[in-house]
């Protein structure tokens, strides 16, 4: 058995871990008044006390975890289980991160200094990140924040579609915008389009079905997810023409998922922190919009839907993205590339995942990535223990043969 | 001039300050290893360093504030202005709060231990708060979290309205639910209903216009805001009958806005932290729903609209509401009652606000509260300096006469 390992973008990852970002802890010096914490001390101590609860060093308790016998229960690292996280599981992921302190008075009001719902510091960091990574040209584009990219996708549909004539009964020449995407697509596109039973937009399924209709008088909105979810392909719009508007979902257009050949520079670009740092639970996404009128319609949607985006979440995104930017973002993305794409080259090993499974190595089938099952993707962003174990098992498998 | 001051609920308050909740800071003891902070130290120091920036003791800089000359700018307390917050303004509010620390790894995934998007610890604290305050019966009701009550209001409309028949063109017997509210109403009700151009629901204005129609075959959804925004009245539904569904917006049903005569116990009750502690920027609200099917439809809406509510925000709400609960929530609400309702009793003082303005005292006109302008509401939840100043000015005014 010959083994070829090369870098491969990771898809399907619901939790990418910010593993290279290690917090620099500053040792406490007695008598150094500069280091005396005041209002944040109790909160910091409580957080550390909770975080230090038993958990065997392989998990952490959280203030908002369900308590067991009055104490917050351990949330084990993905490698560990059991009440105190002492049971090692085969399936691990590294886990570290950037801490932050939120004061009781932080950003209580609805808006920021400029009257908007957007932290301009966070905006700056986001624009800088795209510049450093080289994955998007944000110049001359307006920015919007949403509760994940999810909320922004819907803002885009509402923003791009038209209002029906007053007292519309279905007999006028007006027709709803046809919302489409290429199969396989992210199911939320359809769910969001369907849920309002809107006269302004209607789900019409696979984009390719409408290829020949696209210079008709009907309006189309096409979702283009690139790289695509779930199959990772780089996508282009299927429909073109003056009656077609395109929503570009670039959730996965980061160096740990794909090669960044060129900065994207489209009219409506949507990103999310979920697939960038793995902080899906924060619900934070952003959109760049070229057209002023569209930007305003989307902004209005976000105001009406939730009066902007949580300030707590914006502060957290700021802290996280500043961490990502350290060392020109190399920490996260170079680490994130570390995936193995393994091929079983013996003729009889047609089912490579099975061969590896038998040897105690779990990978993701090549077919998931539209390759054959001669291939397996190995996840290497785990603990050193796991990596050593993987090497030992593969070594044993190769020696056996 | 005789002065009568009695407790009055505050309405219109966009920012209620959690002033009684003072963080207990624990003094640092050298050599006490228990007090050594580890991973949270740098974040805590950074937050304190930023928070301690100049600002003359009358404001705070924030990590996500716009920097001036490379340093985060001061956000002055509402009483102060100027670059370094050294300029005292007449219109002050006290400002304190509860701090929290968020680790880099806090709740990165989409869901909590039970697979939901809801922190069960926060749920417990919310139910306990209603029990202690006595403003709502939450027993036997499902809970939902939203991005402010705003998102929940829309979830309720979608959840309560029906799907039109497939390929509906307006000629069937199906008709959209008529969404109504009593004038004056919160404008977001109308905006949310209008923005989707939905076949399922339609804005129909003032509830009283439909009073005689309400036992027709048409469906109605009525928003009942009690106490009402903006006028503070305790409200009851205008429409009744089997074809009417009611959304109760209880944003202001707390002891600092109104007397709590009885715990509310309705089918669909919506609350928000914005009007409870003043943390509008956090975007956090919750709903209690009696009917299982409605709860599931609303939950589905929240999933599709934003994949649940930010975990960072939920942690902050937990910390804030735990603070509110200290001392059986007396701190916040007894303090919150401290408003003055002042009446000018001399015949010639028909414009009481003007009389006070001339004496350098700013209040809110009685007419705002549907009383006459013989009355003024004085805001007493300000700094001790301000309170002393108010007493001095009123004393001077009375002596003058």
What is this entry, summarized?
The first copy, chain A, is an alpha/beta fold.
Description:
Two copies of one chain form a homodimer. In chain A, the strands form five sheets. The first copy, chain A, has a seven-stranded mixed β-sheet with strand order 8-14-13-12-11-9-10, with helices on one face. Helix content of chain A is 27%, strand content 17%. The relative contact order of chain A is 0.16. The first copy, chain A, contains nine helices and 17 strands. With 401 residues, chain A is of the alpha/beta class. Chains A and B meet through helix 1, strand 7, helix 2, helix 3 and helix 4 of A and helix 1, strand 7, helix 2, helix 3 and helix 4 of B. Strand 7 of chain A pairs antiparallel with strand 7 (100-102) of chain B.
Notable traits:
homodimer; 401 residues; alpha/beta; Laminin; Aspartate Aminotransferase, domain 2; Aspartate Aminotransferase, domain 1; three-stranded antiparallel sheet; disordered N terminus
N-to-C terminal Cα separation of chain A, in Å? 7 Å
Radius of gyration of chain A: 24 Å
Q: Tell me the series of helices and strands of chain A, N- to C-terminal.
A: HEEEEEEEHEHEHEEEEEHHHEHEEH
Would you identify the CATH H-level superfamily of the largest domain in chain A?
A: Type I PLP-dependent aspartate aminotransferase-like (Major domain)
Mean pLDDT of chain A: 79
Q: How many strand units of chain A? A: 17
State the assembly state of the protein chains.
homodimer
CATH top level of the largest domain in chain A is Alpha Beta
Most residues in contact, chain pair and counts: A-B, 107 and 107 residues
Shape of chain A: globular
The helix content of chain A is 25-40%
**Which regions of chain A are unreliable across 5 or more consecutive residues at pLDDT < 50?**
1-34, 90-97
**What kind of sheet is the major sheet of chain A?**
7 strands, mixed
Biggest sheet strand line-up of chain A: 8-14-13-12-11-9-10
Number of discrete helical segments of chain A: 9
Strand content of chain A: 15-25%
Q: Please name the CATH architecture of the largest domain in chain A.
A: 3-Layer(aba) Sandwich
CATH topology of the largest domain in chain A: Aspartate Aminotransferase, domain 2
Number of structural domains of chain A: 3
Specify the structural class of chain A. Answer: alpha/beta
Signal peptide (chains A, B): 1-31
Protein name (chains A, B): Alliinase
Organism (chains A, B): Stephania yunnanensis
Keywords (chains A, B): Pyridoxal phosphate, Signal
């Amino acid at each position: 058995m010959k083994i070829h390992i090369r870098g491969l973008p990771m898809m399907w990852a619901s939790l990418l871990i910010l593993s290279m970002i290690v917090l620099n802890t500053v040792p406490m010096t007695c008598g150094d008044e500069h280091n005396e914490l005041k209002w944040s001390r109790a909160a910091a101590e409580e957080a550390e006390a909770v975080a230090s609860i038993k958990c065997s060093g392989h998990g952490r308790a959280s203030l908002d975890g369900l308590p067991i016998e009055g104490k917050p229960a351990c949330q084990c690292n993905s490698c560990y289980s059991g009440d105190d996280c002492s049971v090692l599981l085969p399936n691990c992921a590294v886990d570290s991160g950037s801490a932050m302190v939120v004061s009781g008075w932080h950003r209580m009001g609805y808006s920021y200094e400029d009257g908007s719902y957007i932290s301009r510091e966070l905006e700056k960091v986001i624009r800088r990140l795209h510049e450093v990574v080289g994955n998007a040209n944000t110049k001359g584009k307006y920015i919007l924040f949403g509760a994940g990219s999810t909320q922004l996708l819907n803002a885009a549909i509402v923003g791009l579609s038209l209002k029906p004539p007053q007292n519309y009964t279905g007999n006028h020449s007006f027709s709803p915008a046809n919302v489409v995407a290429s199969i396989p697509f992210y199911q939320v596109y359809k769910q969001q389009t369907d849920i309002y039973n809107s006269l302004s937009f209607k789900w019409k399924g696979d984009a390719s079905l409408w290829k020949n209709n696209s210079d008709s008088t009907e309006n189309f909105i096409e979702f283009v997810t690139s790289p695509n979810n779930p199959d990772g392909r780089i996508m282009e719009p299927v429909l073109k023409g003056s009656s077609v508007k395109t929503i570009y979902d670039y959730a996965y257009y980061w160096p740990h998922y794909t090669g960044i050949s060129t900065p994207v520079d489209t009219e409506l670009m949507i990103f999310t922190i979920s697939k960038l740092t793995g902080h899906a639970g924060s619900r934070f996404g952003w959109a760049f919009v070229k057209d002023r009128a569209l930007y305003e319609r989307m902004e209005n949607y976000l105001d009406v839907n939730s009066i902007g985006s949580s300030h707590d979440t914006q502060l957290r995104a700021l802290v996280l993205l500043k961490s990502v930017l350290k060392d020109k973002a190399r920490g996260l993305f170079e680490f994130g590339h570390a995936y193995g794409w393994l091929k079983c080259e013996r003729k009889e090993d047609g089912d490579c995942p099975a061969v590896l499974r038998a040897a105690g190595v779990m990978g993701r089938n090549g077919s998931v990535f539209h390759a054959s099952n001669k291939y397996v993707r190995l996840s290497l962003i785990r603990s050193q223990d796991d990596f050593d174990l993987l090497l030992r098992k593969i070594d044993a498998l190769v020696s056996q043969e």
